[in-house]
Amino acid sequence: MNQKGIISHIEIYVSDLKASKRFWSWLLVSQLDYKVYQQWDKGISFILNETYLVFVQADRDKVLFHYNRTHIGLNHLAFYAPSKQMVDDIRTAIQNKNYKELYSDRYPFAGGPDHYALYFEDPDRIKVEIVAAD
After folding, report:
1. 3-state helix, strand and coil shares in percent for the chain, rounded to the nearest 5
2. Which of 13, 30, 115, 130 is deepest in the core (most CB within 10 A)?
3. Residues above pLDDT 90, as percent of the chain
4. Distance CA 61, CA 71 (A)
5. 8 pLDDT exceeds 80?
6. Are 108 and 53 within one domain?
7. How far apart (Å, rounded) are the C-alpha atoms in residues 30 and 109?
8. Which domain holds residue 42?
9. How many domains does one find in the chain?
10. Using one digit for the tens of pLDDT, what is the confidence trace for 75-91?
């Protein structure tokens, strides 16, 4: 298999591993077919095919600033959903779980008239986008 250019993994430090683990396990495992890959006392990773995402507890003594997606660094993580119905179902679930939806007044076309997507935040306010593949 030619793996040239494929992302191996992305590692993100989080302020509250317990809350992040709950959020990302629900989204990645329950909704998007990832599997838990590794777990240790200060982190967890989730894998789909050959790519995995890692979430690590930040050292609370060294946290000086809160995450802000409008500053230099990561803006958001975007994932495909196989259908518009799945995007709608995830939207219902985030509303039921009281996660913060972004751009709800423009749902599902906040990204443009040909881009059916849902935007919301994880516990550290990292923007997550779910895009309908169809």
Report:
1. 25, 35, 40
2. 130
3. 83
4. 22
5. yes
6. no
7. 25
8. 7-59
9. 2
10. 999 999 999 999 999 99
Residues 48, 79: one domain?
A: no
CATH code where residue 19 lies: 3.10.180.10
Are both 49 and 84 inside the same structural domain?
Answer: no
pLDDT digit string, tens, across residues 11-20: 999 999 999 9
81: enclosing H helix or E strand:
strand 76-81
- Residues 79 and 122 grouped into a single domain: yes
> CA dist 13 to 19, 49, 123, 126, Å?
13, 22, 12, 11
Gyration radius from the chain CA atoms: 15
Find, among 18, 45, 43, 46, the residue nearest to 31 by Cα. 46
Same domain, 84 and 132: yes
pLDDT confidence of residue 2: 78
pLDDT above 80: residue 21: yes
Q: Are 43 and 54 in contact (CB under 8 A)?
A: yes
pTM: predicted TM-score of the whole model, two decimal places: 0.92
Find where tokens 């992302």 sit: 7
Span 9-35, average pLDDT: 97
